[in-house]
Specification:
Chain lengths: 366, 531
């Protein structure tokens, strides 16, 4: 009886926070609808424009989801935000840039002035990815070894601050090494950023760039590969075991430090690929290029439920699309794109800290 | 022997990579020029070159010591092999690197397009002005010999011996301290504390008069950081809420005072500085509450990311065209008014320094009062364990909000002084890096400790001003410093007593712990019962 009484009382009592939550939710929904209806009525954006927003959102979402996986994997195992993950991606992008530059200046056919890059584009791209992923992998592993491993078991703010320090360090290292210049990725001609599939919508052409298609395909392939790795292989099983319970996993004969190191390896590989994709599709890289995508990818990971791999994939695509559609829906300036991404982060954490798909971790950890 | 070789290889590769990266960012050039002026006579000697060799030799020594220290310092052969292998591998790495960049340079290729610091001059300097092959060879020889010497050194001052010497030194110092009667007398004299405080206050009041304009300005900047550090000290240090968007409150304070006192903006009404400053602080505190309201349910690193997001949102908003009628967009707000008292304008740097010092004193007073109050204890309890503190009857929600509001008010005050002194506030002053800087001030200084904030602000803001030549490397060093601090001394340089004990709990010898706590309590209980 007592139990029943307790539960009923609990149900009738609505906390102040709940009321605030509901009010904020209603206000947000009302605001968005109001703005959206206004935008639709004014008709500034035709169908073709909306389609363009969605396409660019999906493409950028592919990159976000690859970075987000890195956050989710590390958070799932160590319960720490690898703040420097965006910088790992940036350094991968830079090493890919150098490979492409080297291949571009290597002339294989002096008569027609054909460079290696255009003569053998597929090996060139493969090499770029390989080097980018390798660099990011090494940096990810070193990062864990130097900045995070000595802090195992410290209070939770300590590794986070260390990660922030590492992030600042890498950003400035890149700036000092390569200079504060914006660099343009040299794509082979088959991946020219200006070319793409042309669709006629509403009597206007919408271009789906080949680089965009390439980005989405690569990201989906890598994400599927990762999912299989985590679900089907020994290493994946070990990773899941470590994520659930480190001491027990080590009692079962799993080398916990080794698994953590390999997790950083995998997240580094994904970040490196994401960096190269970013360069190939967006074309411009500089030392700050990893930071904002890094934070947004973290948002994506939170959105999908941190620690949850399919969630991070979904969250990445969702964030990419919403971020591109958002300013149009609200009828605001595209300068404020980042505000939308951050607002989503705040809103998700307020209303559903466990993310869309629900996180694998317990609520206690939020 | 295998272990020795492996340790040597690891150390050699690590040092090789570090040396190559350091030289690629042009650090060696800058430091040797600086050190050369200091150590040698630049008129008669190639001072920079000498100091470069000196630095490299020291690095080689270090590589050797590091390689030999963990293994085999008990045997001569082991230590020497480790050191030699470390030196050899470092030399090999750096030698090859020298050959490559020297080769580029010899062919007249300018690699500055890819590696910004590698100008032909810089490369020639790194090659000791020698041809590439000779330079590579001399690098190789230099590192091999110094690595070997490092192994030798590691053996002679083995780990155990060093530690013992260190302990002896420490005990000697404490002995000396205790035997010097003045020190003991001072520490027992009840008014020492007040005398020290008085001296500090008098010094602080005399300082601005005795300094020139440049130092007044610089110290003013440091002072604003101290002020913000004191604010974030409450939020992060006492209440344990990691706030990465602290600059948002700084921006709110600065922009409010700017909007209210600048004649330039759309808001036609223009009020005097003092009410504007007051309003700005209040609005900053209210912003703290508004931002804190939804996010303070989150814990730890989630809170960090959300506050970071808020900080960025505010920065993007003040930058955007949406609010540019008020905030001036990327141009910022200009012509911000300064304060005046009894008709005297207080807009020179000295007056601002005085005001900043006064503000700091006020902040310290508030902090101390809070710390010793019920609220302060609630903050500390909440930081230690939120669930338990809730069970003890603390309303964690309002307590957190209060911490946020007080911290925000301090930041708002900092923003007011900063904006009015510079007569300008722009979106770039509300950069994320400011938040991280302020946070680092507290972390380096020691969380929860007031003197620590001063020390941190001086180390992070004052030192770079003194060493202007190394300005390019400031933020880099700062990132590395955060990592190193977290590994070596997570409690900060000048931690509060509580933190120091917390972070080094496991290092207290077990017997001592037992004696002080368990056995002591038991004995007391026994005595009670026998009575």
């Amino acid at each position: 009886m007592a139990e029943i009484a307790l539960t009923t009382r609990r149900k009738t009592r609505i906390s102040g926070f709940r009321i605030v939550q509901i009010i904020v939710a209603l206000l947000t929904i009302a605001f968005i609808t109001w703005r959206f209806v206004g935008v639709l009525q004014s008709g500034i954006y035709g169908t073709d424009t909306w389609l363009r927003f969605i396409i660019s959102g999906v493409i950028i979402g592919g990159v976000y989801s690859m970075i987000a996986i890195g956050y989710t994997l590390v958070y799932g195992i160590l319960f720490m935000i690898n703040f420097a993950h965006g910088e790992v991606m940036m350094l991968g992008a830079f090493s890919g840039y150098f490979v492409l530059e080297a291949l571009r200046s290597w002339i294989v056919d002096p008569v027609n002035e054909v460079t290696f890059l255009n003569a053998y584009p597929i090996p060139a791209i493969l090499l770029t990815f390989l080097v980018g992923m390798l660099t990011s992998m090494i940096i990810g592993v070193m990062l864990e070894r130097i900045a995070y491993r000595p802090l195992r078991g410290a209070p939770r703010l300590v590794p986070l601050i260390s990660a922030i320090g590492a992030s600042i360090f890498f950003q400035n290292l890149a700036q000092l090494l390569f200079g504060p210049v914006r660099r343009i990725y040299a794509n082979p001609t088959i991946l020219d950023r200006a070319n793409g599939i042309r669709l006629i919508v509403n009597e206007k052409t919408v271009v789906i760039q080949y680089t965009g298609i390439f980005t989405v395909i690569v990201s989906i392939l890598m994400l599927v590969g990762l999912y299989l790795l985590v679900q089907r292989t020994r290493l994946g099983r070990a990773m899941r075991a470590v994520a659930q319970d480190k001491p027990t996993a080590s009692l079962m004969g799993i080398d916990v430090d080794g698994v953590i190191s390999r997790t950083f390896m995998i997240s580094g590989i994904l970040a490196g690929a994401a960096g190269v994709l970013w360069g190939i599709h967006n074309g411009i890289i500089y030392h700050y290029v990893g930071f904002i995508p890094g934070i947004k990818a973290f948002t994506a990971a939170v959105l999908g439920g941190i620690g949850n791999i399919p969630g991070a994939m979904l969250g990445g695509y969702f964030l990419g699309i919403v971020e591109n559609l958002g300013p149009a829906i609200l009828g605001i300036d595209f300068q404020l794109k980042d505000v939308i991404a951050f607002s989503i982060l705040v809103l998700v954490l307020i209303f559903r800290p466990t993310g869309i798909l629900g996180e694998v971790l317990s609520e206690e950890k939020v | 022997m295998g272990d020795n070789i492996r340790a040597g290889l690891i150390s050699g590769i690590a040092f090789g990579v570090i040396i190559i990266i350091t030289s690629l960012i042009g650090f060696f050039g800058t430091v040797s020029a600086l050190l050369g002026e200091f150590l040698f006579d630049p008129k008669t000697q190639p001072a920079a070159l000498y100091s470069l060799v000196l630095i490299l030799a020291l690095l080689g020594l270090w590589a050797g010591i590091r390689a030999a220290k963990p293994v085999g310092t008990d045997r001569w052969s082991g230590a020497l092999v480790s050191g030699a292998v470390a030196g050899l591998s470092t030399g090999l790495f750096v030698g090859i690197y020298t050959l490559i960049i020297g080769g580029f340079n010899a062919r007249g290729l300018d690699i500055r397009g890819y590696l910004a610091q590698m100008s032909p001059d810089a490369i020639r300097f790194l090659l000791f002005q020698l041809p590439p092959a000779t330079a590579a060879l001399s690098y190789f020889l230099l590192f091999t010999t110094t690595g070997l010497a490092g192994g030798f050194l590691a053996k002679t001052l083995g780990r155990g011996r060093l530690k013992k010497a260190n302990q002896q030194l420490k005990s000697k110092i404490t002995e000396l301290w205790e035997s010097t009667s003045v020190a003991v007398w001072l520490s027992k004299f009840p008014y020492t504390q007040y005398i020290v405080y008085g001296a500090i206050i008098i010094l602080a009041l005399l300082l601005p008069i005795s300094l020139g304009q440049y130092w007044n300005f610089t110290l003013g900047t440091v002072g604003v950081y101290v002020l913000m550090g004191l604010g974030i000290n409450i939020v992060v240090g006492m209440a344990g809420l990691l706030d990465l968007g602290y600059v948002a409150f700084f921006a709110v304070g600065a922009y409010t005072v700017g909007l209210l006192t600048s004649p330039q903006q759309l808001s036609q009404f223009q009020i005097d500085f003092w009410p504007a400053a007051f309003l700005a602080i209040v609005i900053a505190a209210i912003t703290g509450i508004i931002l804190g309201f939804p996010v303070l349910r989150l814990r730890g690193d989630y809170l960090a990311i959300v506050t970071l997001g808020f900080g960025e949102i505010i920065r993007i908003l003040v930058r955007s065209d949406l609010l540019s009628d008020f905030t001036g967009g990327p141009q910022g707000v200009r012509q911000i008014d300064g304060p005046s008292l009894f008709g005297i304008s207080l807009t020179n740097d000295r007056a601002y320094l005085y005001m900043i010092i006064l503000a700091i004193m006020l902040a310290i007073f508030v902090t101390i009062r809070f710390k010793d109050s019920r609220v302060g204890r609630a903050w500390v309890a909440m930081r230690e364990d939120e669930t338990v503190s809730q069970a003890m009857g603390i309303n964690t929600y309002t307590t957190k909000l209060l911490a946020f509001a007080v911290g925000a008010a301090f930041a708002g005050l900092g923003g007011v002084l900063f904006a009015s002194r510079n007569q300008y506030i722009g979106p770039e002053d509300a950069n994320l890096l400011v938040s991280i800087n302020v946070l680092a001030v507290v972390i380096v200084g020691g969380m929860g400790s007031i003197p620590g904030v001063f020390l941190g602000a001086f180390v992070l803001k004052g030192l770079p001003e003194i060493m202007r030549q190394l300005q390019d490397y400031r933020i880099l060093a700062f990132g590395a410093l955060l990592v190193v601090m977290m590994i070596v001394r997570p409690e900060g340089l000048w931690p509060s007593q509580r933190r120091r004990l917390e972070m080094h709990e496991e290092e207290l010898p077990l017997e001592e712990l037992e004696e002080t706590e368990a056995i002591g309590a038991l004995e007391a209980a026994l005595e009670e019962s026998t009575k």
